[in-house]
Write a structure and sequence with these properties.
Structural class: mainly alpha
Distance between the termini: 29 Å
Largest sheet: none
Helix content: over 70%
Radius of gyration: 18 Å
Number of strands: 0
Order of helices and strands: HH
Shape: rod-shaped
Length: 62
Amino acid sequence: MVEAERPSPDVILQIVAVRSALNKVAQLMLVDYIEHRLIEAAETGDFETELSNFRSALDLLI
């Protein structure tokens, strides 16, 4: 879009759309992690490690 010399508001709108899509993917991945890994870890006794991994991932997003 930049190379095509599209107006700045158009480019910014696309950047916002990409950010939104990436945030949604990250949200889906975190939910999947909670639903699968943390529940499994609670059952196998490895909950603290997985919770720490989850917190690290969450810290990267926030």
